[in-house]
Predict the structure.
Amino acid sequence: MPIKLPFRPRRQEFPPDLWTRCPDCGEMLYNKQLEKNLRVCPKCGHHFRLRVDARLRLLLDQNSFAERDGALKSVDPLGFIDQKPYLDRLEAAEVSTGLREAAVWGTGSIGGHRVVICAMDFAFMGGSMGSVVGEKVTRAIEAARSDRLPLVIVSSSGGARMQEGTLALMQLAKTCAALGRLAGAGVPYISVMTDPTTGGVFASFAALGDVNLAEPRALIGFAGARVAAGTIAEELPPGFQRAEFLLEHGFLDEVVPRPQLRDRLIALLRLFRPAPLVPVESQNGTGPMLRSLGLMDVLGDRDETRGSAEAAGSQGPARG
Amino acid sequence: MQAGTLHERDPDHAALREQVWTRVQLARNVRRPHALELMRHMAAEIVELHGDRLFRDDPAIVGGLARLDRHRIVFVGHQKGAETDENIRRNFGMPHPEGYRKGIRLFQLAERLKLPVVTIVDTPGAFPGQASEERGVAEAIARSIQVLSGLRTPVVVVITGEGGSGGAVALGVGDVVLALENAIYSVISPEGCASILWRSPEAAQDAAVAMRLTAADQAELGVIDQVVAEPGQGAHTDHADTAKRLKAAIVARLDELADQPVDALVQARYGRFRDMGAWTTVEPVVPRSERIGGLAERWGLTDRLRGLLESGRATLTGSVEQPLRPQAGDLADEPPLREEV
């Protein structure tokens, strides 16, 4: 016979499928109302995490999204077993999220502007970046470059996926290299950082936006605050690694509340288009070709060894 | 030293653990030759350069000009100290962002002067403190990776000790990646991995085995191209001989790379990292309902649309005006009261 306690836990009055407690102000929020408010606490403005489908719906024009590479799936290249085999963790994440990986990419439009968009979902293994996430991000970057469409990446990730070891680490190199080419091709990239964007994701593609935006109070940092506090034994200031801290230190262009995010992107996309392509004489005799009018041309820096748009795209930055 | 890769798994796991952990300790040995010691042994001439021209000179990253046989090079490397005082000054080889920005400055100098670059990787990781975050260590790492990946001059990377995470890969992008026999390369320190995945730092040895962080394992994975054998009981026992072996490997690679057209070089470097990773392609539709069973009826419109979407036949519908539905993951996995950070 169960023991009867003299009091009931308070939270039982709020069935969790109907109510959510705001972790910032403690307010009990009716779920339907919270959803209607874009998962932003109406009392204190706390931004709850957004799942990837909701994120895409929030930002994109209706019916405009076409997902690409949805069939990519992680494998277990190291045979990694901690307390649970990696493959079991993947399976559990798939079942609980209904996603195949922590990133989704495709094409769509925002206020009529066609874009390549990639969004991450923290619910899938902490949004961690393994080979598939790195590959999807890279394919998104490459598509933006070849189709000359602005790129938007919405990050939400704890960092590189430990279970894939250095192969996960190499995704930092892969994504940054691809972004280097995108920049060389004169195609703009808007990075939107949401709670949390840390570790290897922040230290690669998320930090490299031509424009960096973030949601209010989002945790953004290189090392987890626990790591920093634990290993370094420093007093950390209030608001350390929050979006506003990064804005103050010059690593963000703007902190944008979620209800204004779509409009902000539209405003940017109106002003911020890929550089026009200009015809140039090919130097290796394959006929005229198109290349972007970039900094290199303005500076009149023409390297004889550079014979193609490909090479122009891979040009290292800040020459001359 | 016997190279024991995990593919030839030792039936005795304890022995394997011991073997891997020995290498981790060798990679961290303070007597191990670090970037400047190695450069001084290898180079006929050497001039160290200082400062990022933006904030300060970071002693945890060193760099400069040097001559290796017929090659004039630019070198950049993490620098630890052999004694405690030196190690404190060098911040135990954990760079602040200005260290990486010094590196970027030197990489771009090398590109302008058409000098090949040699980087020496040996760090527990970038410094995770407040000053580092304030000045944007993540941005500095990402930028360094980006600059190296498109640099229009040959780049040879040598991992000589600890290849610790993002702080290592910031200097780890090149045409060729070499590693000393007892070097390690990992996405997170074994201790960090253990405390997160095993929830106990004592499991560091298990984490070291699971991450396959030894040079031999990394070569098998294709992350590094060549393992350079160390003398005797390890590099710390004979700096001069270690440097001699390393120099031979570096110079051979510089000879090869010097002959390549720079476009092909940059293209191949992009391809080298572009190809890294492992995945599979599966049937477009996830048979979710079977696995989830009773939970399936909770799935709303969006999920069904997502199912269609994954088959590549439909597009995601919905608009901002529509109320966002409760998150499937919240329902299935965890009570919505819990917001983990």
